Amino acid sequence: MPSAPVAVLDHFNWGGQAGASCTVRGPGDVHTIAPEMPAMFDGVKLAAVATVLYFLVRCLNLKSPTAPPDITYRDTPLNRYLLKSCPILTEEYEPPLLWGKSGHLQTALYGKMGRVSSPNPCGVRKYLLMQDGATATFDLFESLGDHRTGDDITMVICPGIGNHSEKHYIRTFVNHSQRQGYRCAVLNHLGSLPNIELTSPRMFTYGCTWEFAAMVGSIKRAFPQTLLIVVGFSLGGNIVCKFLGENRINQERVLCCVSVCQGYSALRAQKTFLQWDQCRRLYNFLMADSMKKIILSHRGSLFGMNSSKMEDADLSRLYTATSLMQIDDNIMRKFHGHDSLKEYYEKESCVHYIHNINVPLLLVNSSDDPLVHRSLLTIPRTLAEKKQNVIFALTLHGGHLGFFEGLCCFPSPSPGWTRLSWAMPTQYASGKDTDRPA
Question: In the UniProt entry, which residues are flagged as the active site (predicted)?
Fold first, then answer.
């Protein structure tokens, strides 16, 4: 009876080195089996590395090209002058090579980290008593030199949702503007500062212009000769455009307006902000959570006063809210007596007022902004096509209030929109006497 094959391990190396083999001996034959297992493992590792690299390239959008902003404007002498004199509007925007083409990273990094070395400008806090008993505050920062035109120019700035003068992007913008000869006044949204208590049962809302109007009026009284540059970021962009469009008087002494990364219509954005495309639903949840913390920090003022329009049921619904729309419907719209969320969004969105603005208006957005859906960008584009005082600049990259610039990993200390926001007004101030639109 033939004996069973006997496997003999010859000079086997457990480290998987070349030369290891397994010999199987049977009656009349000898077979040598090559060491294929280590090679197979190497192939799996290579495939895993390739897969990770593929997803990194896709997620970081590394194959996306760099390009100048897409500019929409009417062909007028003023616009031609601005485009010629302000090259940042037409030059190629180059975000950091390894991560700057991801709108999510641009948004997240700027929201959490700000610039590598965030400046700390020194200002004076001003308090304004409103007619309904609310106390508005703004911070005033004097210029660090003369403006190159010789004019006294003040930038009146409205930050994004729940923000104030102490946020990184505002401090960066103020610091660079001061160095260019601008005085800066920054509105602190009502209720946004943790150390300032509310004095009435009301806080800031999506389109309320009362506090911003009070700040602008205070600046005009304090500096009778100053000219104004109006600047708004995100939600602040909606507020400043609505403010200028509400009344033609609000445009007096205004050189121009710059709006960065706003959405123009809350009603049209409502459905898109509930979609998972570009993780927009996740951003909605995170922003709602931040708003809940602000509201709850002022719970005594908003829900405890006799004149408050809030009820215990509203507070209960606030705890369970998972989107900004739920908070707006249960809390925010009631501060101004709106009967429905639709009415609140319609009356508070600048899309119904922005066409009344006649001063030069620069609208800046990013194509990869994860918060602003591309369908909303038809609003500024159409406006720029119709009105000669409007320029719409759409960058390929930048995220939401990101716009980092620089090579490889490390961004430059001055973001693109910072230079754009004071460079364009400077050029307009230089040519205002001959090319100002009617």
Answer: 234, 369, 400
